[in-house]
Amino acid sequence: MEKKKYNVKTIPPDSFFSEPVYLEDEFVLAAPEMLFTREMINALDAWDFFDVYSAGDPSQDYTGHSDDAESGAYSDAAPLWDSEKNSKAEKFFASFLKYVESVFTQVVIKGALDFNAVAEQIRAVCDTIREDRQLLLVVQKNKLASPTDNYLAFHTAKSTIISLVIGNHLKLPAHKLIELGVAALFHEVGMIKLPPQMYLSKRPLQPEERRSIRTHPLLGFNILKSFDFPQAVTLPALEHHERENGCGYPRKISGNGISLYSKIIAVACSYEALSSQRPHKEAKNGYTGMLELLKNEGKQYDDAIIRALVFSLSIYPIGLNVLLSSGRNGQVVDVNPENPRFPIVQIFGELTPDGKNKIAATSQDELYIVRPLTKEEINWE
Predict the structure, then answer these.
(1) Cα(291)–Cα(274) distance, rounded to whole angstroms?
(2) 71: alpha, beta or left, given left = phi > 0 and alpha = psi -120 to 50?
(3) Which of 8, 100, 169, 380 is the most buried (most CB within 10 A)?
(4) What is the Cα gyration radius of the chain?
(5) CA geometry: angle at 177 spanning 262 and 305, to 5°?
(6) What is the pLDDT of residues 289-299, one digit of tens each?
(7) Alpha helices by DSSP H, 23-114
């Protein structure tokens, strides 16, 4: 069925489309069961996505799809989710997290850092992303920091992985990916100079505490500079809270005045923060976090970097738990390389004849995503 183009501003708010809606004819933006809300319209318009595509029509009444079609297994992806590879990805993330903690400890206790050693560790992360990007994204997404865990290390490890995924999408050469990864690993290093209760507090911060928190970019920059790290790596520590519109801190620089690595880390850091639980807020699901960034309120972020994030993880990000049209719960595990409009999902509770977890390609007419699951709805069958 041929898709039609709809100008975003002409779509009635809180309407249902009779067929899935696509962003730039590539990624599913909304399934028929999902309201096309005013918030979504405003977010798309603010990010200069003026048109969306659908073979259906908008209506105030939901017409629905039939749920009786069966989907075929996505055979090429099935080996990806065997227990051995999943365990390997989990162990790698755990070891990387432990490494981040050890590096921060070196800075605090020994006052020493070896750039070349850190670069080698980042090279290993780059290799793992190249080999098992989907698994690593899912594993890091599912790992939540407990009250006893080092929140700063969790945030750093996850932000570094997301930054490198964006860098890969932008086709940065290997040496620049390593620089980006080292910069991402140390973008919050200035926080170690501040009392943990400031950034772990469940209460609103006092004005003086907020001013102290805002010193961490300069503190981090000075720490890295004292170790003679290259400027490409030290600048993101200083600039990751700068914004395209000049409303960031500490220097209120804007646009081309902000380095590329800083722009990438700003988006990765913000997405990680939106989709992770913090002491003072609940986590948003990946879909909601992605829409939040798509709003780009006040043009805070570089559009090209947000676009790279969206096209790397899709609107339904890898690791997102979803309700499927079959009534099963599932998890997005990859973008379908043959048809990127429909992500690949793992179906919970369904196995292939050889006992492996079932992986399926979603489609317009068969298995499709209804909506993201809430935290309470997730059912690991």
Answers:
(1) 10
(2) beta
(3) 100
(4) 21
(5) 45
(6) 677 777 777 78
(7) 38-46, 83-105
- Residue 225 has, within 13 A of its CA and on its CB side, a CA count of 12
312: Cβ–Cβ under 8 A, 6 or more apart, which residues? 165, 166, 168, 169
Q: Which residues touch 149 (CB under 8 Å, ≥6 apart)?
A: none
Residue identified by tokens 């070891």 is 95
CB-CB contact of 234 with 221 (8 Å):
yes
Helix (H) or strand (E) holding 333: strand 329-335
Distance in angstroms (rounded) separating the CA atoms of residues 121 and 22: 38
How many of the other CB atoms lie within 10 Å of CB of 344?
23
**Residue 177 in tokens:** 């990916």
pLDDT attached to residue 254: 96
Residue of 91, 121, 16 lying closest to 59 (CA atoms)? 16
pTM, full prediction: 0.71
pLDDT, residue 52, reads 82
Domains by residue range for the chain, with CATH? 1-62 (no CATH), 85-313 (1.10.3210.10)
> 6, 53 in Cβ contact below 8 A?
yes
Q: Which long-range contacts (CB under 8 A, 24 or more apart) does 242-248 make?
A: 242/266, 243/298, 243/300, 243/301, 244/299, 244/300, 244/301, 244/302, 245/298, 245/299, 245/300, 247/298, 247/300, 248/300
Q: How confident is the model at residue 32 (pLDDT cuts 50, 70, 90)?
A: low
Residue with the bigger pLDDT between 276 and 360: it is 360
pLDDT digits (tens, 9 = 90+) for 230-271: 999 999 999 999 999 999 999 999 999 999 999 999 999 998
CB of 277 closer than 8 Å to CB of 144: yes
Residue type, 68: D
